[in-house]
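Morning, I've got a small favour to ask if you have a moment. I've been staring at a protein lately and its backbone has me curious. You're getting the sequence in one-letter code plus the fold written as tokens. I've dropped the whole record in just underneath, so have a look:
=====
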Amino acid sequence: MNASPSQPRPAERPEPAGLRPTPERDLPAGRHQFHKERLMARIHEDLSAAERPVPAVRRNPFLRRVVLFPVAACVLAGAAVAGVGLTTRAPEEAADPAAGPALTTTVGAADTHGVVQLLDRISLAAAGAAVPAVGANQYVYIESKVAGTDLRVVNGKRSAVGSGLTTRQAWKSADGHRGWLVDEHHKNGIALDTEEQPYLNGPSYDYLAGLPTDPDALLKKIYADTAGHGPGPDAEAFTTIGDLLAESYPPAALSAALYKAAGKIPGVAQVNDAADALGRHGIAVARLDETSGVRSEWIFDRTTFAFLGERQVQVGASAEPDLIKPGTVIHTSAVTARTIVDGIKQTAPHRA
């Protein structure tokens, strides 16, 4: 059965969890997915070349949460991670022909009125969707278009640069131990296998299928499993649910519960107009991170309430106020395919 972006789905996202936070700042297990994913892939490549075993580090190569911590919070593989989810790229990377001006958008007004009712309607749509079970030897396949804004340094001068739209393809086995990733940095693909057991910020289909479908019980578990992480419990709970929206394929009952649980998080609001990475407009469920000034938006079709994609937009003061101004799009994505396949590198849906 084919699942298309016209059906609302929560999702998984890659993240290689390799480095622990510095003593000065506690970074959660899923917080810097995008940058840790690059690091983990490089670790895999280096170890393969040297024929050394993979070091025993906590990994989650399938989540891609943007970074939300200030300049100098930590350094990954020699690249300083700079404010509001932006990477400071080395001079030799700055000549990327796909690079252009920083991505920007109009900052829409957020309103808490009616957001619970909106999430109830989205939940009903998700509950009614036909979601096939993932077999033991099958894979969840997610394809998306992604773009964002980086901080780059050329001849000692820092600037905000927008990346061109790229395609991301991720395959993950039902048990979460086998996977494959194709993206802008790994055009030929890279294996992201692990023996680590799935967890909330690094879930598999089997793990998600075992989560409670009562919204209150589900939210209680999310708060418990993410306690002490992020800028606060409410922000981290919202981000965790958002991590499950963009790249996973859980049972319909769990999808519905995730949306209802999100409606119980303080500070959640709706934005009447938002666009995903492909420019598809819809209505958004959003929450502002007061620490970074970045607002995370989950974008849905106005009619079907299908999940279209997500984006993170700077709406308040940033750690780089001269470069990152309100309206800067830090990260944006659009889901273009979501289905079950019988093997890695397959893109056609499994048919019974």
